[in-house]
Amino acid sequence: MKMISIGQLAKRTGASVRALRHYEQSGLLDAIRQDNGYRLFDESAVQFVERIRVLLRNGFTLDEIRPVASMLAPQPPDLRTVCADVIALYHDKLDELDQRIAALMEIRASAGARLAFLEEQRRRGGP
Q1: Which CATH number does the domain housing residue 21 bear?
Q2: Do 74 and 25 share a structural domain?
Q3: How far apart (Å, rounded) are the C-alpha atoms in residues 57 and 78?
Q4: 40 — phi, psi (to 5°)?
Q5: Do residues 41 and 29 lie in contact, with contact meaning Cβ atoms separated by under 8 Å?
Q6: How far is CA 11 from CA 7, 8, 15, 69, 77, in A?
Q7: Which of 4, 11, 45, 55 has the smallest number of Cβ neighbours within 10 A?
Q8: What gap in Å lies between CA 90 and CA 64, rounded to an integer?
Q9: pTM for this predicted structure
Q10: 40 vs 2: CA distance, rounded Å
């Protein structure tokens, strides 16, 4: 089993050392501590962190990722399957985003209506 340092993991994944420490403290990422306190990670952590980062870029929080984290671990090509829990996670996130978009559209419509009213008042010479 090849082990890599936190610096190597950060360099290979594009995640900051601080983010990797946070993933570890959040229970998502496992490290082996050496006697000197340095963290070592299994080589498979590279793909694992890359998958976490994809989910984070897609708007998921670490709390949302945690329940499906075990499914993000690399698997041999003949054992790869699409996990129903990850699919459900994406469905839930899309529903949440749709609700947020709808709320923002309402706010935008209200602000647009108020702006139109104010511009009309100004055009008419009102207050």
Answers
A1: 1.10.1660.10
A2: yes
A3: 28
A4: -125, 140
A5: yes
A6: 6, 5, 7, 22, 25
A7: 11
A8: 10
A9: 0.69
A10: 10
Based on the structure, what is the number of domains in the chain?
2
Locus of tokens 């190597």: 8
Answer yes or no: do 30 and 91 share one domain: no
Does residue 18 have a pLDDT over 70? yes
Here the tokens at position 42 are: 């299994």
**26 and 57 together in one domain:** yes
- 70 with 40, same domain: the answer is yes
Largest distance between two CA atoms of the chain: 77
Q: What is the rounded CA–CA span in Å between residue 66 and residue 48?
A: 12
Residues 74 and 25 in one domain: yes
The CA distances from residue 52 to 19, 20, 46, 63, 70, in Å, are: 11, 11, 10, 12, 11
Domain that holds residue 120: 82-127
